[in-house]
Write a structure and sequence with these properties.
Blueprint (H helix, E strand, L loop, with lengths): L1 E7 L5 H14 L4 E7 L10 H16 L7 E10 L3 H13 L4 E6 L7 H6 L2 E3 L8 H19 L7
Parallel strand pairs: 1-2, 1-4, 3-4, 3-5
Helix pairs in contact: 1-5, 3-5
Length: about 160
């Protein structure tokens, strides 16, 4: 199995890079992890609705160019389903059982995601109604993916 994160924007904060590197290392015993950082579009101050839609469209095209047909795609979106960690672990396990060898997670930029990206998703997932910086969301997601694998192993890490 391979886990791929497709994200908009570059990580700048050292502590986030270090945390993600740590979880990537931990996950390496279970799966290969690939992180693809895509450029974000510059958003003008006081951008119009049309400008925001154009930005989302451009970012969406970049995202979709990194997603293959055979991948199980989980898009992080505030309107998505919320899961306890045990259920999230089961989602990952079930995707594998259903024949998906690659699971791709998508995290949009500061404006969110284009409707086309959401349409491509096999699952829309939410971590709740809180607004989190998309850079921090990467670290939170990596920890939860690691936790999901540890749950599958019956490890006490989850407790």
């Amino acid at each position: 199995m391979k886990i791929k994160l497709v994200t908009v924007g570059k990580l700048k904060e050292k502590y986030l890079k270090e945390g993600i590197a740590e979880y990537s290392k931990r996950l390496s015993r279970f799966t290969k992890v690939e992180i693809i950082e895509l450029a974000d579009e510059k958003t003008p101050d006081k951008a119009s609705l049309l400008e925001n839609q154009q930005i989302l469209s451009k970012e969406g095209e970049r995202i979709l160019s990194k997603v293959l047909d055979r991948e199980f795609v989980i898009v992080l979106a505030i309107e998505g389903q919320q899961f306890p960690s045990e259920k999230f672990s089961k989602v990952i396990e079930d995707a594998s059982v259903r024949g998906f060898s690659d699971i791709t997670f998508i995290i949009g930029g500061s404006l969110g995601l284009s409707p086309k990206v959401k349409e491509r998703a096999n699952l829309l997932m939410s971590f709740g109604q809180l607004t989190l910086p998309h850079q921090l969301m990467r670290l939170v997601l990596m920890e939860q993916i690691y936790r999901a694998f540890m749950i599958q192993q019956g490890s006490p890490y989850h407790k």
